[in-house]
Design goal:
The protein is mainly α. The chain is built from eight helices and no strands. The termini are far apart.
């Protein structure tokens, strides 16, 4: 198969010869891959594009006409696949930017009603935390408000790490019961 020229190989491909198709893939995949890589830096995307080119060649093998070499057709098909990929990527970027704008404005500008509700909720939580037993309140406050680790809390309160974990769990359960 390696000795056959493109025209002979492609005639066999049109007759559904998979070995001839493999020979064409082996003949052109390296040069096409390098062509794609120069335009697209991602190796995985380049491999996907190359695969799409050859899948398209196989699927359209009965409609394609080859004069002497298959390279001009493959080169042009590859170029169009790269353009399609770039258009899709650009659409993804535009979509992501729109989402960021939408969520960015939504998250960065809370309404006065949301601010008031957040303050009221924080006050209710603080009231409930104040009602907790001393050890539970201390462990929970150091964990959630001071962002301390279990180990650091245990050292600060002179308790075992398991006791600290239990107190934090109990505090969370306490709050869940109060805010159901």
């Amino acid at each position: 198969m390696e000795q056959l020229d493109d025209l002979e190989l492609f005639i066999r491909v049109q007759a559904d010869d998979r070995n001839a198709f493999s020979a064409l893939v082996n003949r052109y995949s390296d040069v096409l891959f390098r062509f794609i890589q120069r335009r697209i830096s991602c190796t995985a995307d380049s491999e996907d594009i190359l695969q799409e080119v050859f899948v398209s060649l196989w699927n359209l093998r009965h409609q394609i006409t080859v004069e002497q070499s298959l390279y001009p057709y493959l080169f042009k098909a590859t170029k169009y696949k790269i353009i399609d990929w770039m258009v899709k990527e650009q659409r993804k970027i535009v979509h992501a930017e729109k989402l960021l704008q939408h969520y960015g404005t939504e998250l960065s500008v809370p309404t006065s009603e949301e601010e008031l509700l957040a303050k009221e909720l924080a006050a209710l939580i603080d009231t409930e935390i104040d009602k907790m037993p001393t050890t539970m309140r201390s462990a929970f406050s150091l964990s959630r408000k001071e962002a301390m680790s279990i180990k650091d809390i245990a050292a600060e309160l002179a308790l075992s790490e398991q006791t600290v974990k239990n107190n934090i769990s109990l505090a969370l359960g306490w709050l869940r019961l109060r805010f159901k």
